[in-house]
Amino acid sequence: MAALSAAVVVAVVLAVVFTRPGGGGSSAQGGEVFLQSANSTGQDPFTESTAKQSSVPPEPSAPAAPTGAANEVRAVEGGAPGLYGGTEKVAACDVGQQVKALQADSAKNRAFASVAGVQPSGVPAYLRSLTPVQLRVDTRVTNHGFRDGAATSYQAVLQAGTAVLVDGRGVPRVRCACGNPLTQPVPQRTAPKPVGHRWPSYQPSNTVVVTPAPATVNVFVLYDHRHNGWIHRHRGDHSGRHDQQAKPPADPHPWIPPTPGKSSRPPSPSPSGTRPPTSSSSTSTSPSTSTSPPTPPSGSSSSTSPPSSSPPGSKSPESKSPGSKSPGSKSSSVGRPSETPPAESSSASSGPTSATTATTATSAPRTSVTSRSATSGGGSPTSATSVRPATTSTFPGSPDTGSPTA
């Protein structure tokens, strides 16, 4: 299912190669990438626009994507929930009109079929198998126009909000504003030169390329900007009549890589209703008696005896041991005055905070506790942070171009 699709965000090196199918002429100068806004027809259109929705949608607040080199583009799997948008019960493209336009011109139909990899007679069924969506992020593609009776090709960046048809693996295959077939961009080493009108939000480092999902996507999770919600759209539903409302995905912006040192998913709640135990030395307090001085906060310690049986909140404002069995009882530590100032007491805090600490120690298993230096600001240990690994991505069917540049 689409909800289970993992969004793999990696840096890949892209440039441009302009060739016609079969090694024909070029439709642009090498090293260029054409910027195509959501509402523009662009050059060499196959058909008139069949887009029903192609305006730039307002986006919910999202963290800024980290910048990178001009020739680096992040790759996102086509089945990632939240990668695309759409309006409930409204298709972004008119697939029926697209079919009629190509059937009316046999030369265009043959050229379209050659790019799509199907027989000319199979173009209608191919188009009806696709799913209409809107891009939520500027996306690199190879766009194929029609000129002089044949298909051309050029590298392009499609603006967020562009209406496209995606295949069963979530890869854009048709740009509805011009009817042009789309394929994946060609990876090489040189940085492309943008050509055309730049929209205000365009940045090369914020552009992505969509890679095929590892399995067929039966249901796409789309952001509905019109209703500020989420919907499920079934694969091949080119009218949107089967759309259903959905819950927000865990990662609503799959094209933004996780921040180093932070988990990409929210923490699971503790079974006891308190915050999960940490590796901080503050959880190591035990009610056992001790004949040695209290350990400094920066040192490591471990729990050596059963947790306190007194309920949380039974402590007085004075510094007490969290293991006392009655309110107001004195510390059982040997070799120091019973009225030890808070600054000289053990690492457990007093008052309500101490009660919370004791509760945390009760629910946590007895394990060796790491030092305070292994935590970040008293929170979860950095060693437990979940970060998605970065891998080098190449595009299926494209030539091996060596290792990508940083």
Question: How does the SSE layout of this entry go?
Answer:
Blueprint: E1 10-13, E2 32-36, E3 72-77, E4 84-85, H1 95-103, H2 106-116, H3 123-128, E5 131-135, E6 139-143, E7 146-147, E8 150-151, E9 154-158, E10 163-166, E11 172-175, E12 180-183, E13 193-195, E14 208-211, E15 219-224, E16 229-234, E17 244-246, H4 351-363
InterPro entries: DUF6777 (IPR046704)
Region (Disordered): 37-70, 232-406
Biased composition (Low complexity): 271-387
- DSSP strand (E) fraction? 15-25%
Order of helices and strands: EEEEHHHEEEEEEEEEEEEEH
Total number of helical segments? 4
Number of strands: 17
Largest sheet, described in full?
Answer: 12 strands, mixed
What is the topology, as strand order, of the major beta sheet?
13-2-9-6-12-11-10-5-4-15-16-17
Q: State mean pLDDT (0 to 100 scale).
A: 69
As residue ranges, the low-confidence spans are 1-29, 263-406
What Rg, in angstroms, do the CA atoms define? 30 Å
Q: Cα distance, first to last residue?
A: 33 Å
Structural class by SSE content: mainly beta
How much helix, percentage-wise, in residues? under 10%
General shape: globular
InterPro entries: DUF6777
Protein name: DUF6777 domain-containing protein
Biased composition (Pro residues): 249-270
Organism: Streptomyces pluripotens
Describe this structure in words.
The chain has four helices and 17 strands. The protein is mainly beta. It has a domain at 2-246. The strands form three sheets. It has a twelve-stranded mixed sheet with strand order 13-2-9-6-12-11-10-5-4-15-16-17, with helices on one face. A three-stranded mixed sheet has the order 1-3-14, with no helix packed on it. Strand 10 (163-166) and strand 11 (172-175) form a beta hairpin. The longest helix is centred in the last third of the chain and has 13 residues, at 351-363. The two termini are 33 Å apart. Mean pLDDT is 69; it is low at 1-29 and 263-406.
